[in-house]
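Suppose you are handed a protein chain with no further information: no name, no annotation, nothing but its sequence. What can you learn? This example shows the usual starting point.
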Amino acid sequence: MSKVSFVQKWFMAIRPSSLILSAAPVLLGTLLAFADGVGHWRAAFFSFLGAFLLHILVNLVNDYCDLKKGADKEGDYDPMRGILVGAIPSEEMKTAIEIVIALFLVPAAYLILRGGWPITVIAVTAVASAIFYTAGKRPLGYRGFGDLLVFVFFGPVAVAGTYYVQSLEMNPAILLAGIAPGLFAAGVLMINNLRDRDRDKAVNKKTLVVLFGKEFGWCAYHIFIFFACMLPLLIYLLTKQHEITFIAAGVYFLLLPAMRILARDSERDAMNQALGLTVQACFIYCVLFGIGWFF
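A reasonable first move is to predict its three-dimensional structure. Written in structure tokens, the prediction is:
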């Protein structure tokens, strides 16, 4: 894997398969909006585009900064992340980061014009978080804040923001619905940090798994998934509507293999399999919950 083409190296850097995690909450917000009769196709399109560009920005900045800080070693290939570390020179990566930020201004401008100051706040904080997650002297991802950021931006912010730019209104049930994909995303990060615990510890990357240990990470993953799957019941109890969303809770059973892997196997390939299953489960959950909201 030492030689890759121009297309291959950028495909690995962007990691298209990882974008499922950013598509899921935007899809959920869009389904909720259309189910409520307030959907807006153009706003939905630019929401998806903005989410994809932000996720690509996170991937590029992470690869660039982790290599600089020693969290990744040049020449390493990670099949789950789909990257060959150091395949792209630093200057090229910096240029790509600047291009992605410039491209993000296009959907951001439309969404800000439509949604006003709340979307401006979301756009600015999202870009800042994407950059300073691994960049800077005190990167947030190296100081135990990664799980919180992932939960917030892949959960309530993404779902509620997508719903808001289409409907130009908000209600508490939509914010609650956004908690589930945020918990799934936090679960994905927890597996990633369990897998990379030794490497992270060696470079003083203080993830929650490094700070509190593997058992904490394993238990946190279970708690995240359990509460994500219980949210349809909570929302029904509060609203007395949309009981068909209960079908989304069945995703819990799809993740039993991932839970077994985390309980007994610490091999990278097995952990990568659990990570992939969790990403897929998040997307399936959002589709099922969104469909259930129509009834």
